[in-house]
Amino acid sequence: MILINGEQRDTLEITDRGLHYGDGLFETIEIVQGQPVFLTQHLARLKIGCQVLRIPYPKEALLLDEIHQICHSVVHGVVKLMLTRGSGGRGYRQPEPIQATRLVFLYPFPKYPVNYKNEGIKALFCTSRLGLNPVLAGIKHNNRLEQVLARAEWQDEFQEGLMLNLNEHVIEGTMTNLFVVKDGVLYTPEIILSGVKGVLREIILEIAKINNIPFKVTSLTQDFILLADELFVTNSVIGIWPIKSLAGKSYALGSWTQKIIHYLAEYKISDQGTAC
Amino acid sequence: MILINGEQRDTLEITDRGLHYGDGLFETIEIVQGQPVFLTQHLARLKIGCQVLRIPYPKEALLLDEIHQICHSVVHGVVKLMLTRGSGGRGYRQPEPIQATRLVFLYPFPKYPVNYKNEGIKALFCTSRLGLNPVLAGIKHNNRLEQVLARAEWQDEFQEGLMLNLNEHVIEGTMTNLFVVKDGVLYTPEIILSGVKGVLREIILEIAKINNIPFKVTSLTQDFILLADELFVTNSVIGIWPIKSLAGKSYALGSWTQKIIHYLAEYKISDQGTAC
Fold it and tell me: Looking at the complex, does the CB of residue B248 fall below 8 Å from at least one CB of chain A?
């Protein structure tokens, strides 16, 4: 089921700028028992994206209502909420006023083997590099060719690929953020020139703060990551996947990762009150 | 009129990766008396884009036939030819096999005042920067947020904005390539880390070669451009627009620009034989 500006449809106006320029933003939200998980955080990031791209943020009641229509009877699924700059304008020049297009897609929850969570995944370093653009870094916009090219580097032999940017800093996975544990400190790459600030990344940083886990958000090299004690990747749909092998090296599903998985489960329960 | 995979339609499958990730390429082609101008060159660039993004290049006869259907009775117009990776796949992972979507749009020829060509335009330096990504530089892909953001910096007081990249090199206009004449040498920025290799840019470089005009393709600074003798921008639809003012400085529509405008007119006539 798909809602476009509140109406059930399965096609889009061909003039939409989402198609022509990737001129839009999206959020991918887990649905559990009819409730969108971490909805407040997803909408907050969408709002920041709207400020950066200067797409008018719709009335939140409208978004909440459309998400509710889509997901209220869903036991376990995924909602993709997309917002484009709509149709019109002349070439790159935006229309005035901007009439954003709201798209709400419902997908079944992806069936990942349970051992990805319990035992960990195999990852590789992608050859494709993330470009540099400080304005677009952080937000979840629709210009995603870099991720598409990186994801085409493997088939089923790995579950995620880590991407370096042009400065040779490790930034994130193609669809996840990366966390590294080394000597009792939790590290995650800074998202300044490249990458997406995942909703779960922000939550895990918050969890670290609440629970006095020492953490650093900084630039990380490939060498540093290969010397890590523990590695895991995160996104709002998969949660936390420990990395059990990377570039031929093996990693334990260590106590820090287990602790954070535990804290996240607690946080998720306590956060349920904020859903729509 | 719009053809999608050969059929007249005005809506697109909502699952198309062009919408979700800007996962596609496009060409904007002038139509004169039913004939697409510089079609061979446009299709050659599209093919390179397909190689870079690994989107299967459709059978050329099919593209030619669909363009012909759209433009055979058009006196003066613009065809936008778009190719996306089609629908399907799982997240960023591409479908297998890839069934590219072909889109052919017909637009009226934009009505620009004739003095843009004859007297020149006013340009500014945009504040927005082009990011860096050597893999995506050169091709005309659908990830165009940088251009959308730059074009939003002015309304009607200018006709084009020149964009620097993160390295502070001047690369191009939001919808054009840039040429600079200084001491009898023609310069254009190298397109290595950022920017699009415009079809007309390549043709003007060819014209320079044929006519023994000294030229250099190199990195250019803002200071160098401000000291230029003559400046002009190019794209396949507008042709050549001299710049008459930039950042408060005035420029003459000089003899080199006039010479190149003349050579281009000749080249266009001689090239007509290659159209479909």
Answer: no
Find residues 178-217 of chain B whose CB sits inside 8 Å of chain A: none
Q: Which residues pair with B125 in a beta bridge?
A: B162
Per-residue pLDDT band for A1 (boundaries 50, 70, 90) equals: confident
Q: Where are the alpha helices (DSSP H) in chain B?
A: 17-21, 39-53, 60-71, 115-118, 145-151, 199-210, 222-226, 255-271
State pLDDT tens for residues A104-122: 999 999 999 999 999 999 9
Cα separation values, A13 from A162, B5, B67, B126, B148, Å: 35, 16, 21, 31, 19
**Among B11, B92, B150, whose Cβ lies nearest the Cβ of A151?**
B92
pTM for the whole structure? 0.97
- Dihedral, CA of residue A259, residue A264, residue A270 and residue A271, to nearest 10: 160
DSSP A212-266: T--EEEE-B-HHHHHT-SEEEEEETTTEEEEEEEETTEE----HHHHHHHHHHHH
- Residue A276 reports pLDDT greater than 60: no
Looking at chain A, the domain(s) classified CATH 3.30.470.10 span: 2-108
Which residue ranges does chain A devote to CATH 3.20.10.10?
115-274
* Of A226, A261, A224, residue with least CA distance to A120: A261
- Residue B234, chain A, CB below 8 Å: the answer is no
On the question of pLDDT at B229 being above 60, the answer is yes
Per-residue pLDDT, averaged over B138-146, amounts to: 98
A150's CB contacts (< 8 A; 6+ apart) are A126, A128, A161, A163, A174, B92
- Structurally, what CATH architecture does the domain formed by B115-274 represent? Alpha-Beta Barrel (3.20)
- The class that CATH gives domain A2-108 is alpha beta
Q: With contacts defined as CB-CB under 8 Å, which chain B residues touch A166? A: 132-134
Does A274 have pLDDT greater than 60? no
Tell how strand A11-13 and strand B101-108 pair up.
Answer: unpaired
